[in-house]
Design a protein that fits this description.
By secondary structure, the protein is mostly beta strands. 8% of the residues lie in helices and 30% in strands. The chain starts with 17 loop residues before the first strand and ends in a 10-residue tail after the last strand.
Length: 132
């Protein structure tokens, strides 16, 4: 994938590249995603139904920052079905977590040459419409 060079100061470039995938809770799918998810090609990954390990965390690695829904871990009966990964190449001064009290919705605000953007990662279950 061709992509504009990332600015030297680790701020977000004019063009955001976002990976979106439903992993259906599969650990193998999450491992495969991290092998393919190149922070030189993508800025953000919006994941639905991530694999959540026995300590209630999604696997991560040294190249990606995991952002959970605001209520993650507060209600063990309802696992988080939405996670955003943001490349660690992007300065933490360029984004912030927006509180949203729903296990199926993760929200961040991005700031860059484009202004400000609210990015919502929403998981819509096929079994109910509570997210809508």
């Amino acid at each position: 994938m061709n992509r504009d060079a990332r600015p030297q100061n680790n701020e977000i470039s004019e063009h955001l590249c976002i990976w979106q995938q439903n992993l259906h809770g599969a650990q193998a799918a999450q491992e495969h995603m991290f092998r393919e998810l190149d922070p030189d090609s993508y800025d953000i990954a919006c994941i639905q139904e991530p694999y959540i390990n026995p300590v209630n965390l999604a696997p991560g690695n040294s190249r990606w920052e995991a952002i959970y829904p605001s209520c993650h871990g507060s209600n063990s009966a309802q696992p988080s079905c939405s996670i955003i990964y943001i490349s660690k190449k992007i300065s933490k001064n360029s984004w912030r977590i927006i509180p949203f009290d729903h296990a199926d919705i993760t929200v961040i605000e991005l700031s860059g040459p484009f202004g400000k953007i609210l990015l919502y990662n929403i998981y819509n279950s096929q079994c109910h419409s509570r997210t809508l």
